[in-house]
Amino acid sequence: MLEDILQNRYAVTAVILFGVGFANLMLQQNLLRKVLGFNIMDAAIFLLLASLGYIDGGVAPIVGDRGFDPLYINPIPSGLALTGIVVSVAITAFALALIQRIYRRYGTIELRELLELAKKEDD
Amino acid sequence: MHEDRRDKNLRRRLTSWVDGEREPKDQTLFVMEQRPPRRARQTEEEFERKDRDRLQKFFNWYPAAAAVICLVMVAVLLIAVMNMPGFGQADNPINNEVSDRYLKHGREETGSENAVTAMIVGYRGFDTFGESCVMFLAVAAVMILLAREEHRPADADTEEPEEERADLILEQAARPLIPFMLLIAAYMLLHSETTPGGGFSGGTLLGAGLILTSAAFGAESAQRLLSRRQYSAVRTFGLLAYGLLYGAYIFIGANGLQNHLTRLFLLLDLAVGLVVACTIYGFYALFSRGRI
Fold this sequence. Notes:
The complex is a heterodimer of chains A (about 120) and B (about 290). With about 120 residues, chain A is mostly helical. In chain A, about 75% of the residues lie in helices and about 0% in strands. Chain A has helices spanning about 1-5, 10-25, 30-55, 75-105, 110-120. Chain B is extended and about 105 Å long. Helix content of chain B is about 70%, strand content about 0%. Chain B has helices at about 1-20, 30-35, 45-80, 95-110, 115-125, 125-145, 170-190, 200-225, 230-255, 265-290. The interface between A and B is large, with 56 and 57 residues.
Protein backbone atom coordinates (compact mmCIF):
# COMPACT_ATOMS: atom_id res chain seq x y z
CA MET A 1 0.00 0.00 0.00
CA LEU A 2 2.58 2.53 1.16
CA GLU A 3 4.89 1.14 -1.47
CA ASP A 4 2.27 1.82 -4.10
CA ILE A 5 1.74 5.35 -2.89
CA LEU A 6 5.45 6.10 -2.92
CA GLN A 7 5.78 4.48 -6.29
CA ASN A 8 3.13 6.73 -7.78
CA ARG A 9 3.58 9.75 -5.56
CA TYR A 10 3.05 12.33 -8.29
CA ALA A 11 -0.10 10.67 -9.54
CA VAL A 12 -1.47 10.42 -5.99
CA THR A 13 -0.73 14.08 -5.43
CA ALA A 14 -2.43 14.90 -8.69
CA VAL A 15 -5.53 12.95 -7.66
CA ILE A 16 -5.69 14.72 -4.31
CA LEU A 17 -5.26 18.10 -6.00
CA PHE A 18 -7.96 17.15 -8.46
CA GLY A 19 -10.27 16.28 -5.59
CA VAL A 20 -9.57 19.59 -3.88
CA GLY A 21 -10.29 21.48 -7.07
CA PHE A 22 -13.43 19.49 -7.78
CA ALA A 23 -14.73 20.04 -4.26
CA ASN A 24 -14.09 23.75 -4.72
CA LEU A 25 -15.95 23.71 -8.00
CA MET A 26 -18.94 21.94 -6.50
CA LEU A 27 -19.19 23.42 -3.03
CA GLN A 28 -18.18 27.05 -3.26
CA GLN A 29 -20.97 29.53 -3.76
CA ASN A 30 -18.72 32.30 -5.04
CA LEU A 31 -18.29 32.12 -8.79
CA LEU A 32 -14.70 33.36 -8.62
CA ARG A 33 -13.78 30.53 -6.27
CA LYS A 34 -15.41 28.08 -8.59
CA VAL A 35 -13.09 29.24 -11.33
CA LEU A 36 -10.16 28.87 -8.95
CA GLY A 37 -11.23 25.31 -8.23
CA PHE A 38 -11.33 24.67 -11.93
CA ASN A 39 -7.77 25.95 -12.23
CA ILE A 40 -6.61 23.68 -9.43
CA MET A 41 -8.08 20.74 -11.36
CA ASP A 42 -6.13 21.88 -14.41
CA ALA A 43 -2.93 22.03 -12.40
CA ALA A 44 -3.52 18.49 -11.16
CA ILE A 45 -3.88 17.24 -14.71
CA PHE A 46 -0.70 18.99 -15.83
CA LEU A 47 1.16 17.43 -12.91
CA LEU A 48 -0.11 14.00 -13.88
CA LEU A 49 0.87 14.48 -17.52
CA ALA A 50 4.31 15.77 -16.66
CA SER A 51 4.95 12.90 -14.28
CA LEU A 52 3.75 10.34 -16.80
CA GLY A 53 6.32 11.36 -19.35
CA TYR A 54 9.29 11.27 -17.00
CA ILE A 55 11.86 8.50 -17.16
CA ASP A 56 14.33 8.03 -14.33
CA GLY A 57 17.57 9.75 -15.19
CA GLY A 58 16.14 10.98 -18.46
CA VAL A 59 17.15 14.27 -20.02
CA ALA A 60 15.16 16.84 -21.96
CA PRO A 61 14.31 15.48 -25.42
CA ILE A 62 16.66 17.64 -27.44
CA VAL A 63 18.26 15.15 -29.75
CA GLY A 64 21.63 16.44 -30.76
CA ASP A 65 24.53 14.22 -31.69
CA ARG A 66 24.49 12.80 -28.21
CA GLY A 67 22.78 9.52 -28.97
CA PHE A 68 20.51 7.66 -26.66
CA ASP A 69 22.75 6.76 -23.75
CA PRO A 70 20.95 8.79 -21.11
CA LEU A 71 17.38 8.14 -22.16
CA TYR A 72 15.26 11.08 -23.23
CA ILE A 73 12.00 11.68 -21.45
CA ASN A 74 8.82 11.10 -23.39
CA PRO A 75 8.01 14.24 -25.43
CA ILE A 76 4.34 13.46 -25.96
CA PRO A 77 2.91 14.33 -22.52
CA SER A 78 4.79 17.64 -22.63
CA GLY A 79 3.01 18.56 -25.82
CA LEU A 80 -0.34 17.46 -24.44
CA ALA A 81 0.20 19.54 -21.30
CA LEU A 82 0.74 22.51 -23.59
CA THR A 83 -2.64 21.94 -25.20
CA GLY A 84 -4.18 21.69 -21.77
CA ILE A 85 -2.59 24.92 -20.61
CA VAL A 86 -3.87 26.80 -23.64
CA VAL A 87 -7.41 25.55 -23.19
CA SER A 88 -7.26 26.27 -19.46
CA VAL A 89 -6.13 29.84 -20.08
CA ALA A 90 -8.84 30.41 -22.65
CA ILE A 91 -11.59 28.96 -20.48
CA THR A 92 -10.44 30.89 -17.43
CA ALA A 93 -10.39 34.18 -19.30
CA PHE A 94 -13.83 33.56 -20.75
CA ALA A 95 -15.26 32.57 -17.36
CA LEU A 96 -13.77 35.63 -15.68
CA ALA A 97 -15.18 37.91 -18.37
CA LEU A 98 -18.61 36.37 -17.87
CA ILE A 99 -18.31 36.83 -14.12
CA GLN A 100 -17.39 40.46 -14.60
CA ARG A 101 -20.46 40.99 -16.75
CA ILE A 102 -22.61 39.24 -14.14
CA TYR A 103 -21.21 41.45 -11.42
CA ARG A 104 -21.83 44.58 -13.47
CA ARG A 105 -25.43 43.59 -13.96
CA TYR A 106 -26.42 42.09 -10.60
CA GLY A 107 -23.85 43.49 -8.19
CA THR A 108 -23.02 40.11 -6.72
CA ILE A 109 -21.29 36.89 -7.66
CA GLU A 110 -22.74 34.69 -4.93
CA LEU A 111 -24.66 31.91 -6.59
CA ARG A 112 -27.68 31.87 -4.29
CA GLU A 113 -28.22 35.59 -4.37
CA LEU A 114 -27.86 35.43 -8.12
CA LEU A 115 -30.50 32.71 -8.36
CA GLU A 116 -32.91 34.77 -6.30
CA LEU A 117 -32.23 37.91 -8.29
CA ALA A 118 -32.65 36.09 -11.57
CA LYS A 119 -35.93 34.60 -10.36
CA LYS A 120 -37.21 37.99 -9.30
CA GLU A 121 -36.26 39.32 -12.69
CA ASP A 122 -38.17 36.52 -14.34
CA ASP A 123 -41.48 37.57 -12.78
CA MET B 1 -61.43 -25.57 -16.13
CA HIS B 2 -62.19 -21.88 -16.11
CA GLU B 3 -58.54 -21.00 -16.75
CA ASP B 4 -58.42 -23.41 -19.58
CA ARG B 5 -61.35 -21.88 -21.30
CA ARG B 6 -59.98 -18.39 -21.05
CA ASP B 7 -56.69 -19.60 -22.37
CA LYS B 8 -58.36 -21.20 -25.33
CA ASN B 9 -60.39 -18.11 -25.91
CA LEU B 10 -57.21 -16.01 -25.95
CA ARG B 11 -55.57 -18.35 -28.39
CA ARG B 12 -58.52 -18.25 -30.67
CA ARG B 13 -58.56 -14.51 -30.62
CA LEU B 14 -54.85 -14.36 -31.31
CA THR B 15 -55.01 -16.72 -34.24
CA SER B 16 -57.95 -14.92 -35.69
CA TRP B 17 -56.07 -11.66 -35.30
CA VAL B 18 -52.99 -13.13 -36.97
CA ASP B 19 -55.12 -14.41 -39.80
CA GLY B 20 -56.48 -10.95 -40.21
CA GLU B 21 -60.04 -11.86 -39.46
CA ARG B 22 -60.63 -9.13 -36.96
CA GLU B 23 -59.13 -5.80 -35.95
CA PRO B 24 -57.59 -5.41 -32.51
CA LYS B 25 -59.86 -3.68 -30.12
CA ASP B 26 -59.51 0.05 -30.31
CA GLN B 27 -58.21 1.04 -26.90
CA THR B 28 -58.09 4.80 -27.16
CA LEU B 29 -61.42 5.33 -25.54
CA PHE B 30 -60.49 2.98 -22.77
CA VAL B 31 -57.27 4.93 -22.04
CA MET B 32 -59.18 8.19 -22.04
CA GLU B 33 -61.54 6.81 -19.47
CA GLN B 34 -58.76 5.60 -17.25
CA ARG B 35 -57.01 8.94 -17.10
CA PRO B 36 -57.45 10.65 -13.70
CA PRO B 37 -59.53 13.78 -13.78
CA ARG B 38 -57.54 16.90 -14.38
CA ARG B 39 -56.86 18.89 -11.28
CA ALA B 40 -57.74 22.49 -10.94
CA ARG B 41 -54.95 24.89 -11.95
CA GLN B 42 -52.56 25.82 -9.14
CA THR B 43 -52.77 29.31 -7.87
CA GLU B 44 -49.77 31.58 -8.28
CA GLU B 45 -48.85 31.57 -4.59
CA GLU B 46 -49.07 27.86 -4.32
CA PHE B 47 -46.84 27.43 -7.32
CA GLU B 48 -44.30 29.90 -5.95
CA ARG B 49 -44.29 28.27 -2.55
CA LYS B 50 -43.73 24.86 -4.07
CA ASP B 51 -40.96 26.19 -6.21
CA ARG B 52 -39.24 27.75 -3.23
CA ASP B 53 -39.64 24.56 -1.24
CA ARG B 54 -38.06 22.60 -4.03
CA LEU B 55 -35.14 25.02 -4.26
CA GLN B 56 -34.71 24.90 -0.48
CA LYS B 57 -34.70 21.13 -0.53
CA PHE B 58 -32.17 21.18 -3.31
CA PHE B 59 -29.89 23.50 -1.37
CA ASN B 60 -30.26 21.31 1.70
CA TRP B 61 -29.07 18.14 0.13
CA TYR B 62 -26.71 19.67 -2.41
CA PRO B 63 -23.57 20.04 -0.22
CA ALA B 64 -23.84 16.50 1.13
CA ALA B 65 -24.37 15.05 -2.32
CA ALA B 66 -21.54 17.10 -3.76
CA ALA B 67 -19.18 15.98 -1.02
CA VAL B 68 -20.14 12.36 -1.56
CA ILE B 69 -19.59 12.68 -5.31
CA CYS B 70 -16.17 14.26 -4.72
CA LEU B 71 -15.11 11.56 -2.29
CA VAL B 72 -16.31 8.76 -4.53
CA MET B 73 -14.50 10.25 -7.49
CA VAL B 74 -11.27 10.68 -5.55
CA ALA B 75 -11.55 7.12 -4.28
CA VAL B 76 -12.07 5.74 -7.75
CA LEU B 77 -9.18 7.76 -9.12
CA LEU B 78 -6.94 6.69 -6.26
CA ILE B 79 -7.69 3.04 -6.92
CA ALA B 80 -6.91 3.61 -10.58
CA VAL B 81 -3.67 5.40 -9.73
CA MET B 82 -2.58 2.63 -7.36
CA ASN B 83 -2.70 0.21 -10.25
CA MET B 84 -0.69 2.40 -12.55
CA PRO B 85 2.80 1.33 -13.57
CA GLY B 86 5.55 2.78 -11.42
CA PHE B 87 6.80 6.31 -11.81
CA GLY B 88 9.74 6.94 -14.08
CA GLN B 89 10.34 3.45 -15.44
CA ALA B 90 11.56 3.26 -18.98
CA ASP B 91 9.39 0.27 -19.91
CA ASN B 92 6.10 1.89 -18.97
CA PRO B 93 3.41 1.45 -21.61
CA ILE B 94 3.36 5.18 -22.25
CA ASN B 95 6.87 5.01 -23.70
CA ASN B 96 5.73 3.21 -26.80
CA GLU B 97 6.74 3.24 -30.43
CA VAL B 98 5.19 6.66 -31.10
CA SER B 99 7.51 8.58 -28.82
CA ASP B 100 10.34 6.35 -30.00
CA ARG B 101 9.75 7.42 -33.55
CA TYR B 102 9.47 11.09 -32.62
CA LEU B 103 12.79 10.88 -30.84
CA LYS B 104 14.68 8.79 -33.37
CA HIS B 105 13.39 10.23 -36.65
CA GLY B 106 12.19 13.65 -35.56
CA ARG B 107 15.41 15.32 -36.48
CA GLU B 108 15.65 14.09 -40.04
CA GLU B 109 11.94 14.29 -40.71
CA THR B 110 11.26 17.75 -39.39
CA GLY B 111 14.69 19.28 -39.00
CA SER B 112 14.13 20.10 -35.36
CA GLU B 113 16.44 18.74 -32.71
CA ASN B 114 13.96 19.49 -29.97
CA ALA B 115 11.56 16.57 -30.05
CA VAL B 116 8.82 18.51 -28.29
CA THR B 117 8.92 21.25 -30.91
CA ALA B 118 9.09 18.65 -33.64
CA MET B 119 5.96 17.09 -32.26
CA ILE B 120 4.02 20.27 -31.56
CA VAL B 121 4.74 22.10 -34.79
CA GLY B 122 5.61 19.23 -37.10
CA TYR B 123 3.85 15.98 -36.42
CA ARG B 124 0.86 17.42 -34.65
CA GLY B 125 0.69 20.85 -36.18
CA PHE B 126 -3.04 20.75 -36.73
CA ASP B 127 -3.44 20.33 -33.00
CA THR B 128 -1.45 23.52 -32.56
CA PHE B 129 -3.59 25.17 -35.21
CA GLY B 130 -6.61 24.23 -33.15
CA GLU B 131 -5.00 25.72 -30.07
CA SER B 132 -4.31 28.94 -31.91
CA CYS B 133 -7.94 29.04 -32.98
CA VAL B 134 -9.03 28.46 -29.40
CA MET B 135 -6.96 31.42 -28.26
CA PHE B 136 -8.16 33.58 -31.11
CA LEU B 137 -11.74 32.78 -30.25
CA ALA B 138 -11.13 33.30 -26.54
CA VAL B 139 -9.90 36.82 -27.18
CA ALA B 140 -12.84 37.44 -29.49
CA ALA B 141 -15.28 36.20 -26.85
CA VAL B 142 -13.71 38.26 -24.08
CA MET B 143 -13.77 41.25 -26.40
CA ILE B 144 -17.48 40.76 -27.03
CA LEU B 145 -18.13 40.56 -23.31
CA LEU B 146 -15.87 43.29 -22.01
CA ALA B 147 -15.01 45.78 -24.74
CA ARG B 148 -16.64 49.10 -24.01
CA GLU B 149 -18.23 51.14 -26.71
CA GLU B 150 -16.07 54.06 -27.66
CA HIS B 151 -18.82 56.38 -28.84
CA ARG B 152 -20.88 56.14 -25.68
CA PRO B 153 -18.66 57.25 -22.81
CA ALA B 154 -21.39 59.03 -20.82
CA ASP B 155 -22.72 55.93 -19.07
CA ALA B 156 -22.08 55.90 -15.36
CA ASP B 157 -20.58 52.45 -14.97
CA THR B 158 -18.68 52.43 -18.23
CA GLU B 159 -16.89 55.59 -17.21
CA GLU B 160 -13.24 55.62 -18.10
CA PRO B 161 -10.96 55.31 -15.10
CA GLU B 162 -8.71 58.31 -14.83
CA GLU B 163 -5.34 57.84 -16.37
CA GLU B 164 -3.26 57.92 -13.25
CA ARG B 165 0.46 58.19 -13.23
CA ALA B 166 2.03 54.77 -12.85
CA ASP B 167 4.10 53.76 -9.87
CA LEU B 168 7.60 55.23 -9.86
CA ILE B 169 9.22 52.00 -8.66
CA LEU B 170 7.41 50.00 -11.31
CA GLU B 171 8.44 52.45 -13.98
CA GLN B 172 12.11 52.44 -12.98
CA ALA B 173 12.18 48.66 -12.68
CA ALA B 174 10.42 48.13 -15.97
CA ARG B 175 12.80 50.34 -17.92
CA PRO B 176 15.78 47.94 -17.79
CA LEU B 177 13.61 44.82 -17.61
CA ILE B 178 11.58 45.18 -20.77
CA PRO B 179 14.46 45.01 -23.28
CA PHE B 180 15.71 41.82 -21.68
CA MET B 181 12.26 40.31 -21.73
CA LEU B 182 11.87 41.08 -25.39
CA LEU B 183 15.35 39.74 -26.07
CA ILE B 184 14.65 36.43 -24.33
CA ALA B 185 11.30 36.23 -26.07
CA ALA B 186 12.99 36.69 -29.44
CA TYR B 187 15.60 34.11 -28.54
CA MET B 188 12.95 31.60 -27.54
CA LEU B 189 10.97 32.22 -30.69
CA LEU B 190 13.96 31.92 -33.00
CA HIS B 191 15.71 29.00 -31.33
CA SER B 192 12.92 26.62 -30.56
CA GLU B 193 14.52 23.95 -32.70
CA THR B 194 17.57 23.53 -30.54
CA THR B 195 16.62 24.76 -27.09
CA PRO B 196 13.62 24.48 -24.81
CA GLY B 197 11.00 27.06 -25.56
CA GLY B 198 9.19 27.81 -28.75
CA GLY B 199 6.16 29.61 -29.99
CA PHE B 200 4.10 29.29 -26.87
CA SER B 201 6.60 30.23 -24.19
CA GLY B 202 8.26 32.87 -26.36
CA GLY B 203 4.92 34.36 -27.26
CA THR B 204 3.87 34.44 -23.63
CA LEU B 205 7.05 36.29 -22.73
CA LEU B 206 6.48 38.74 -25.57
CA GLY B 207 2.98 39.34 -24.30
CA ALA B 208 4.33 39.79 -20.77
CA GLY B 209 6.69 42.46 -22.09
CA LEU B 210 3.74 44.28 -23.64
CA ILE B 211 1.78 43.96 -20.40
CA LEU B 212 4.68 45.38 -18.42
CA THR B 213 4.95 48.28 -20.84
CA SER B 214 1.27 48.96 -20.48
CA ALA B 215 1.35 48.73 -16.68
CA ALA B 216 4.44 50.82 -16.16
CA PHE B 217 4.14 53.54 -18.79
CA GLY B 218 0.37 53.73 -19.07
CA ALA B 219 -2.04 52.58 -21.70
CA GLU B 220 -1.10 55.42 -24.02
CA SER B 221 2.43 54.24 -24.67
CA ALA B 222 1.32 50.64 -25.10
CA GLN B 223 -1.22 51.81 -27.63
CA ARG B 224 1.45 53.78 -29.43
CA LEU B 225 3.40 50.53 -29.63
CA LEU B 226 0.43 48.47 -30.75
CA SER B 227 -2.75 50.26 -31.64
CA ARG B 228 -6.10 48.58 -31.84
CA ARG B 229 -6.06 48.17 -35.58
CA GLN B 230 -2.50 46.86 -35.53
CA TYR B 231 -3.44 44.48 -32.77
CA SER B 232 -6.29 42.99 -34.76
CA ALA B 233 -4.13 42.82 -37.86
CA VAL B 234 -1.27 41.04 -36.08
CA ARG B 235 -3.59 38.58 -34.41
CA THR B 236 -5.36 37.65 -37.60
CA PHE B 237 -2.14 37.60 -39.57
CA GLY B 238 -0.57 35.17 -37.11
CA LEU B 239 -3.45 32.74 -37.32
CA LEU B 240 -3.74 32.96 -41.11
CA ALA B 241 0.00 32.62 -41.58
CA TYR B 242 0.06 29.55 -39.40
CA GLY B 243 -2.84 27.95 -41.21
CA LEU B 244 -1.42 28.61 -44.66
CA LEU B 245 2.15 27.70 -43.82
CA TYR B 246 1.21 24.53 -42.08
CA GLY B 247 -1.12 23.56 -44.88
CA ALA B 248 1.72 24.07 -47.32
CA TYR B 249 4.05 22.16 -45.04
CA ILE B 250 1.74 19.18 -44.85
CA PHE B 251 0.95 19.04 -48.55
CA ILE B 252 4.48 19.53 -49.77
CA GLY B 253 5.99 17.42 -47.03
CA ALA B 254 3.75 14.53 -47.93
CA ASN B 255 5.48 14.33 -51.30
CA GLY B 256 8.87 13.77 -49.81
CA LEU B 257 10.16 17.31 -50.26
CA GLN B 258 10.33 18.06 -46.58
CA ASN B 259 14.03 18.73 -46.48
CA HIS B 260 13.58 22.04 -48.26
CA LEU B 261 11.11 23.13 -45.65
CA THR B 262 12.99 22.75 -42.43
CA ARG B 263 13.36 26.51 -42.16
CA LEU B 264 9.61 26.79 -42.27
CA PHE B 265 9.61 25.79 -38.63
CA LEU B 266 10.91 29.19 -37.71
CA LEU B 267 8.03 30.92 -39.45
CA LEU B 268 5.48 28.56 -37.95
CA ASP B 269 6.83 29.21 -34.49
CA LEU B 270 6.80 32.95 -35.08
CA ALA B 271 3.18 32.79 -36.19
CA VAL B 272 2.18 30.86 -33.08
CA GLY B 273 4.19 33.28 -30.98
CA LEU B 274 2.36 36.27 -32.45
CA VAL B 275 -1.03 34.71 -31.72
CA VAL B 276 -0.05 33.83 -28.17
CA ALA B 277 1.47 37.24 -27.43
CA CYS B 278 -1.62 39.00 -28.75
CA THR B 279 -3.85 36.72 -26.70
CA ILE B 280 -2.01 37.36 -23.45
CA TYR B 281 -1.80 41.09 -23.99
CA GLY B 282 -5.40 41.24 -25.15
CA PHE B 283 -6.64 39.56 -21.99
CA TYR B 284 -4.71 42.04 -19.87
CA ALA B 285 -5.88 45.07 -21.79
CA LEU B 286 -9.50 44.01 -21.91
CA PHE B 287 -9.69 43.11 -18.25
CA SER B 288 -7.83 46.16 -17.01
CA ARG B 289 -9.28 48.93 -19.18
CA GLY B 290 -11.89 47.37 -21.40
CA ARG B 291 -10.22 48.18 -24.69
CA ILE B 292 -7.11 47.25 -26.56
